[in-house]
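Researcher: First entry.
Model:
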Amino acid sequence: MSQLDLIVRGGRIIDGTGAAEFTGDIGVRGGKIVEISDTGPINSSAKRELSAEGAIVAPGFVDIHTHYDGQATWSNRMSPSSHHGVTSVVMGNCGVGFAPVRPTDHDLLIELMEGVEDIPGVALNEGLSWDWESFPDYMDYLAKRQFDMDIGAQIPHAALRVYVMGQRGADREPATAEDIAQMRQLTVEAMAAGALGFTSSRTLNHRTSRGEPTPTLQAEVDELLGMASALKTAGRGVMEMISDFEDLDGEFSLLKQMVDASGRPMSISLAQGLSPHGWRKVLGKIEQASDSGLVMRGQVAPRPIGILLGLTTTLAPFTTRPSFTELSRLPLMERCGTLADPARKAKILAEETGRGFARLYNLMDEGRKIWLMSDPPNYEPDPKDSLYAQAMQRGLDPWSYIYDVLLQNNGTNLLYTPFANYAEDNLDCCRDMILHKDTVMGLGDGGAHVGTICDASFITTLITHWGRDRTRGEGIDLPTLIKCQTQDTARAVELYDRGTLQVGMKADLNIIDFDNLHAGLPEIVNDLPAGGARLQQKARGYETTVVSGEVTYECGEATTALPGRLIRKT
């Protein structure tokens, strides 16, 4: 027998199928798994051997909801995702991206991505080369690059609409029959070039940096069915959608029509809002559709979707108060010194919160839903541990106390406000979502919301919180959790060559010191183009990550290997 490239020895193998773990060896050759032994050591020799004794060996994680559309054009590394055992990502979600694009519309797409996904426009202006126009051009550009993981792309509706309709598309005018025909043809071409699917947004929460709604908000039935028919013509591909569901019956009828017309799967963003049980109505509709034979899934998260507040992030609890905002351009230490002045503090606390901050103020529940971010982070915090509760216990004014905590540690403290999935101050809703037959893990938004959110670590939370650490309710068994983020996510986007540790599958895997696995404390780093700042979050406990048989990360640090490539489905 010829020599193997890699043998992983003696690990606790959780293979991604949901089956119970077993101890064994894995042999790799040519980027694929060629041998698995649970009865004794693999006898072959190998160019490299990795000891996994006592550690979990799991498939590489597949994250189907990221926004690395820009980052993938200027960086080889898809962090923060790469720090959390991710070996495949899918981008182009929520209907936003950078192709197709006409030279005259670069700024428009930047404004859209900056507004919807909180990626600094200055970084995008500096980092994007725009060496493409059509979506196939964009795919060809990515195909020439090397990464620390595999990358799949979807064609975004907003970029497509603006490309075909120009300003009419940006202004949300109805598409003509000719517009629809052209968008349909371009979608067919994108699928032929290897796109994984088509995405769109129908939520008012998605706006440009100028405050304008996303171009796709009011797209009519004929337009969306045109895109659906393109996937039918292509004979493959998935759809990803986000909606406010203000008219639940009408909106869901439209989405069902798209699935029926295309014959293709659809995932729909699903989270608990301020209404504790509204999400159950949407999931009920998804379940009914699924039971009728339509492939529809709710795309869900394992923890709250929340905002990080601080002096180093985009937002702070006192954002929009004039005496606070006027200091925003000062260096951190100088700002801290000024804010520490009692007179300045009193002035800020006496000012009203501006209207632009009213929604977030409501999410903070007048200060009741603000916690100090700990290391490791606690994403199911108890109300009695909130800064508001601590202040009341000490007989202090809550906002004064929050102000003081914000300035501690030289102004580097991060405060956490969970909103979606936390209406009842616990994560019981997330457990129900994770275990439902018609859901799939997603919504991490890796590469996006870089100054307010760092949810690419969803994956580490999924397996640690639910598989080991939860104290405020029931957990979930580890084989089920691993399956959720490997086989299930891979199959949701029709990737059948990865997601499980089985002979013939792609050799993407993680060796994990599970007892010591933790998400780290988020921190601000200035590594975007033009020195732009973003939140970064690493993890402890990922001993080794392997992509296509090559070691990409060891003990959290990157190697020189860049085996990741563009995923092209044809």
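Researcher: Second entry.
Model:
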Amino acid sequence: MYRVYRVYCDGATLYNSSLESLKIFNPSLELELNKTGSFQFTVYPDHPQYSAIKKLRSIITVYQDDYLIFRGRVLDDEIGRYNEKHVTCEGELAFLLDSIQRPYDYSGTVSGFLNLLIDNHNAQVEESKWFTVGNVTVTDPNDYIVRSNIDHVDTWTELQKKLIDLLGGYIVIRHEGYINYIDYLQDFTLLSPQKITFGKNLLDLKRIRKGADIATALFPLGAKLKDGEGKDTDNRLTVAAVNDGLDYIVDEEAADRYGLIFSTHTWDDVTEASNLLAKGQAYISGLVNQPETIELTAADLATVDASFSSFHLGTYVKVTSDPHGIDQNFLVTKLSLKLLELGANKLTLGGALEGISGALAGLSDAQGEIILQIENASKTASTAIYNVEQNLLASLQVSEENIKSTVAENYYLKDDTDALVSSVSTQIEQTKESVEIQFNQFSADIEAVAAGTDAEFEEIRKYIRFVDGSILLGQVGNELELKISNDRISFLQDAVEVAYFSDNKLYVTDGHFIHSLQLGDFAFIPRANGNLSFKKLSL
């Protein structure tokens, strides 16, 4: 089953890859962390929604199956020679360009500052451009920041300069119902179950580390110093008082390697020289050890096989390539997607998975897949797992999911799950009913199990299992299985689909016919001399 892309303009279908009547041309997406992103396409006058596309007014959404991958507005619509519209859209973070932050002075938490900016934004724009502050996991070491501005600056620029540039992290939009949450995250913790492997789906790889971004010496600057009357001066706090009189710091090892390369950075909220020195030392470490970016082209196996999960922005991906000496997790920082040229899709990965809690780092591949499936099924899971405590909870949820799966197949173990929360218990009961409906022919066996014959029911489960709405036939652990789903009957080898029946057709990855192959009234028939004949069969 192929991935289905759908595009909507103000809720009306603009494109559906499975419908010939709704076509757009050259649709392409550029998605990047901490960028507004863009979507481009061309539409001709015979399209039913041609006239409905309004510059700066129309809201465009792009779905991959049921997963929202882009929401934004029409920015430009150039008319070509044949009256075709070449449409360029910008992502919804660009809504923050429509509001202006008036001069202000702020001191308090990171979350409080973000709320201040978003409240000011919402007060100036229409409801379709509103955001609600959601999860904020970026913190300042002192849990106290000072920010100010004497100018009138758009919200997006102010957010970048006063939060992202100073504290790092990622601004992410999350949708739940009709609410557009804006999250400010220190890091992401989801691991994609789909891997990128040399010789399988890794097509090209380029490693990038920019020397222009490296610095080996730093002038750390703090808050403005005040005069005798308590007014700000043009002079700033330096580290000289706690750094042997020097107002700069040097990474000696890096300086030996690259030479002295000076840079500067200002922390307006730092008023103590010792705190400024600590911040400067941490900052120069990042300037010296610039993260390596990997730009690669990989085949997204999810585009041709629905059993795989697609790559998404802000998830980590395991990359394995022996020729390049790579075997680690990297963050998906950029996606270039061509909706009609799936082989041209490109991923940009950067930054090894570091600092992730043991709760996630120790998950098996299967558990990682469960997490991502939960995220796809429930729009809340993608942003519910951010700090150590929540990671530990995620691990517990995975265990609960495993228990739920076991209950779905062995409901007689329900008594062992008294510690589960009530919502999970409800799911278990619903799953139990589903199993009873699907396997009512085994009612006698189930009753026997309830009476204590666990072994008998377990023997049945070795060969027949109900998993995620499908029936699996075949002994557990055997490399060959038969999977019966609503839309197909699949033949699996080592859990990979190698052939399937669907729409009165048989699809086979590789075919081997031992004797002959008949097509209607014609057949390929081997001769006695070893040659092959193609002839019409006699009636």
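Model: Note on the second entry: The radius of gyration is 29 Å.
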